[in-house]
Amino acid sequence: MRFFLRRFMFYVITFWAAVTINFLIPRLLPGDPVSALIAKNQGRISPDATEALRALFGLDQDVSLWQQYLDYWGLILHGELGISFTYFPTPVTEVIQQALPWTIGLVGIATIISFTIGTLIGTGIGWRRGTWADSLLPISTFFSSVPYFWLALIAISLFSVTLGWFPASGSYDRSLIPTWSWEFVGSVIYYGFLPAMTIVISSIAGWILGMRNMMVTVSSEDYVTVAQAKGLSERAVMFGYAARNAVLPQVSSFALSLGFIVGGTLVMEIVFSYQGIGYFLFTAVAAKDYPLMQGIFLVITLAVLFANIVADFVYGVLDPRTRQEG
What we know:
Layout: H1 2-28, H2 33-40, H3 50-56, H4 65-77, H5 92-127, H6 136-145, H7 148-162, H8 182-218, H9 222-229, H10 234-246, H11 248-261, H12 266-271, H13 277-287, H14 290-318
């Protein structure tokens, strides 16, 4: 119990620090978001409205930075994240709610697929090290070393332009109305297959290599030798003893990956014009949209912290030694 209480307090302090940094970083960026908004909406917003917009967005120069910080905490505690400058007058929460399901659906499924396949392949290669299976490592490492945007552009050139199998951009057929119909779901899968495939190809090598190295390490441990001496089947020893201990570092890495799923894959969403959270973050940074940047960073922070909490609990269940006092 003390282990979990200490971890909980650690994450509370981490959350406070992350929110504070999240508040300060956008305000340290050069530029004026109100001026950028007026310039973007020339003819629709008068320059005389500058002071009113500053007051509306909480950027009034008469308000101290400390008061802005307290107001920001008040908004967070009430579940409000302000109004987006870029998509004015849409609240930040609505913008994030629109983009988040697309990112979680695409990047989340692709990450789970790459983790599962990579871990299983790494388990087999590590258990049978020195065989022909080791020749798969250079191939997978080659694809992971290719810059992601190049891999995405090559996929678009080959499968979209040359072969015409998949669309080059978008998240679904715009002629369809978003509903829970088979036609719309099929369109989402069809449009998302190419970006998901590039995510899997670029990330699977890390899971394979990490699991393979850990399997090689634990295969020489005493408990594996004892399990083999008991006459257990090779499958039982590989998965029940070796893989169960070798997967522990993978669990921590996977938890971090799940946390960063919320942040999306920025380059992928830009290259494929995919309406995920990464694309909106890029737009917010370009427009110096403080509320939207802070809202997205806050969601990413909460996701990463929650994923780490889950990883700590799972790690404690899989390996009770982590709960013991030093």
